[in-house]
Amino acid sequence: MLNKKYDLIIIGAGPGGYLAAERAGAKGKKVLIIEKEKTLGGVCLNRGCIPTKTLLNSAKIFYKSQNSETYGVTVSNAVYNFDKAMAWKGKVVNLMTRGVAYQMKRFNIDVVKGTAKFIERDKVSVGNNIYEGRNILIATGSSPAMPPVEGVEQPHVITSDDVFGITTVPESLVIIGGGVIGLEFASYFSMIGAEVTVIEMLPEILPNVDEEIAKAFRTSFTGCNILTNSQVKKIGKDKVIYIKEGKEFEIKADLVLLATGRVPNIKDMGFEKIGLDFSKKGIAVNDKMETNLPNVYASGDVTGKSLLAHSAYRMGEVAVNRMFEGRDNMRYNAVPWAIYTNPELSGVGLSEKEARKAGYNIKTATMQLRANGRFYAEHGNEKGFCKVIVDADTDLLLGVFLLGGVSSEIINSAAVMIEAELRVKDIKEIIFPHPTVSEAVKDTLWEI
Amino acid sequence: MATAVIMPRQGNTVESCLLLEWKKQKGEKVSEGEIICEVETDKAVFEIEAPATGVLLDTFFDEGADIPVLTNIAVIGKTGESYDELRPVAEAADEAENTEDIINTEKETVTKDVKETATVSKEDKHKRGISPRAKRLASKEGVDVHSVAGSGPMDRIIERDIVSVLNSREPLTPAAKEKLSQGGTYPSGGSGIGDRITSKDFATSVSNDIIREEELKGVRKIIAERMLASLQNSAQLTLNSTADVSSMLALRETFKNSKLDNRFAKVNINDLLMYAVVKTLPKHPVINSLMSGNKIQYYENIHLGFAVDTERGLMVPTIKNAQNYGVLELSNEIKRLSTACRENKIQVEELSGGTFTVTNLGNMGIDDFTPVLNLPQTAILGISRVNLKPLQAGNEIKFVPHIGFSLTINHQVIDGADGARFLMDLADAVKEINLLIAL
Questions:
Q1: Whether residue A16 is found in the same domain as residue A128
Q2: Distance between CA B223 and CA B232 in Å, rounded?
Q3: Exposed, middle or buried, A351 (CB in 10 Å: 0-12/13-18/19+)?
């Protein structure tokens, strides 16, 4: 039985864990990271961000090859080779996860594979070995939620965890849940030829996105069928039965993907034993990423706050800075997000509705990206919008939403503006490269 | 020949008055008797009338200035007429001194800047001087100049003082700078990127929960000074007791419903209590005394002060020779003085010269409290609300209405037993109010 002492023990090698390990390692701290899976990187690298973006890119190339006549390009016999696309995805994931392993070596971080359990507040066991840490960071992530619907246990009903294991493109796919994960898979599968239906319980998809933009996004999403205000009643062998406006309907489904949100991984790790404050929503943390227990921190999805890989990165950094420097705090007001569908949708800050609810006196402006030279040249009549929400009293930018093209690569400029608390009059002095789609942010602000 | 408007003397003790508001502006025509400004003494607000008809040629003070009595505050005459000889002497000297100071200390300052700075000094004499360059930089960077220590001659704030503040503080976002220049208080820490101070830090900083800041002035300033002085300069002890008010409540009912004489209908419990106090005090001369230096001054007459809650703060009018009043007269006088305080029509003389004070918080649900002495008086009586008190009567328990008394005495002069004896007599007087009135 081994007993080793560390400056920091991190449970979970996803984005909430491995970056924190690198940062603490760079400070010369003795760090242990514990991972229950074979490869490092967590959901993000293995079953989330990276593989989905890889597959979406393949699908987008395929889709464009068939839809580029407007731009003077006609491609005949374009083929989406499912196996080759999956193989490329595998290669990307492999390189990235090995990259994390390399970083762990580079910063002299001990990596232990296995399931961690708390013995005491500062002691964790993996198998028979016990590790003692002056600080502990819990970054155990989240898992797909299982909706209480009859028939979810059937083999053709899968979650985002299993979707990369499929070997053929389904003829018909029903996705339950119109959130980010559901919509990205809807975009992917519809581009590669599946007949896709998304069933969303709420009146609009993407409940946290600005209503005007969410609606524009839904109507621009032409490749698949999106049903809102619809509740799944039962999943049958080859169909899904749902209720819309009191009436029952059924729809053909060779494959059913559950995408009804994610739940924090909080079970069977001895959290109760050490008196950690947590609920089914996650581990309670403050903006220093401190839990209720001294020297025990949490980061990433397990906190239930901002379930995004980049939020997890930052939370991990904040935790490490708090442990070893006593400064830094997590801010959620300028966390950008992106949905890598075709077209892409991205945003940062408050939606119009949220801003009003928060009591701001706001001004908004929405601009069609068609007015932007580069966007029109490259996307023609595809839908594209930029919407800005500004505090009328302070002239501060509160929110930016971008629909169209590769807006995910642009949104960070808006996040910087919000984070740095630039006023609209300050932003107007920034020079944007021309011609780029990014100019839309500034141009829309001039419309205020 | 131009006519000066003089700050009048308001009573013998007033040495200066606060200029509240100019009702007429420089250059406006005024007629004799027209109100040109409002001033406030420590006790009340007064209006100053134009002593002549003509044009208001100049006003020598800004609103908020504390001006010695008998000083010229403005001048009325014909347009173009000279009035230099009517300028108050003190102000002219003050200005000259400032100007000289600036010329001597800042060689690089040009004449234009001298004027600007001189104006600043005139506007607010409490502010120290600041060089124009420092002022510009402070305003651009959102530095609160009030908290900057000046390193220039005569503690003047110069550019390097502002630069040193900028070098020592956390960086601010553009929005945070704006907040600071709008008068926000510099937050204790930043929550933005690299600990930058953001506008949100202003919202969470405790001092920025302040919604309004007012200078202590006029009545408030006097209350603040007197209350503190009272507690610092005397040995205050509060004695609490209660008095049976059943007879008094019954008498009040009789007054209210009397068909014989309805003038008594307005006599309330407070009036009756005041009457009982006046009737009890002669038996306890030390309670009706003042302490002046090493002397205790005993008074033949009772000058009864009582606390009145007004919009401008606590005021204490005095009923002179209260022992000469009957119940009805006393009641009428209390009402007249209270109204005069609330309507700001009280005369300075009516606010001074008390020998004993009563303060009644009974109608605000207070059970007992510790009144603060109105120095140099040696005692003050607080009255609390009526509560039912269980009393044993034979084999039964009866609930009898009792009113609460809190007598604060200056223990330097009055012993606890003396105070207690006064309270016992007062309780008897209250209990037998009918007899007291008949006597």
A1: yes
A2: 14
A3: buried
Indicate yes or no: pTM above 0.80. no
Return the residue in A421, A425, A427, A429 with the most chain B beta carbons within 10 A, the one to mutate for interface testing.
A421
Q: Are strands A123-126 and A116-120 parallel, antiparallel or unpaired?
A: antiparallel
Candidates B177, B191, B201: best to mutate against A (most CBs of A within 10 A) is B191
CB contacts, 8 Å: B173 with chain A: 420-422
> Hey, are the CB atoms on B195 and A327 less than 8 Å from each other?
yes
- Helix A309-325 / helix A15-26 crossing angle, nearest 10 deg: 30
Length of chain B: 439
* Residue among B175, B192, B195 whose CB faces A396 most closely: B175
Pick the CATH number of B219-438 from 3.30.559.10, 3.90.1570.10, 3.40.50.300, 3.40.50.12780: 3.30.559.10
Interface residues of B toward A, Cβ cutoff 8 Å, are: 173-176, 178, 191-193, 195-196, 198-199
Contact yes or no for B173 and A420 at CB 8 A:
yes
By DSSP bridging, strand B396-410 and strand B379-393 are antiparallel
A352 part of a folded domain = yes
Split at pLDDT 50, 70, 90, the class of B204 is: low
Residue of A nearest to B178 (CA): A394
Report in angstroms the alpha-carbon separations of A33 from A68, A192, A216, A312: 48, 39, 43, 16
Q: Which domain holds residue A54?
A: 3-143+263-325
ipTM of the complex: 0.70
Contact B320, B353 (CB under 8 A): yes
Return the residue of B nearest to A394 by Cα: B175
User: Per the domain annotation, does A267 fall within a domain?
Assistant: yes
Reported as a single tens digit per residue, the pLDDT across B42-98 is 667 788 889 999 999 999 888 877 788 888 899 999 988 888 888 887 544 444 334
Which pLDDT band holds residue B124 (cuts at 50, 70, 90)?
very low
Query: Does residue A286 sit at the B interface (CB-CB below 8 Å)?
Result: no
Answer yes or no: do A136 and A275 share one domain. yes
Question: Same structural domain for residues A8 and A135?
Answer: yes
DSSP secondary structure string for all residues of B49-92: E-SSSEEEEEE-S-TT-EEETT-EEEEEE-TT---GGGS-HHHH
The predicted-structure confidence for A24-40, as pLDDT tens digits, reads as follows: 999 999 999 999 999 99
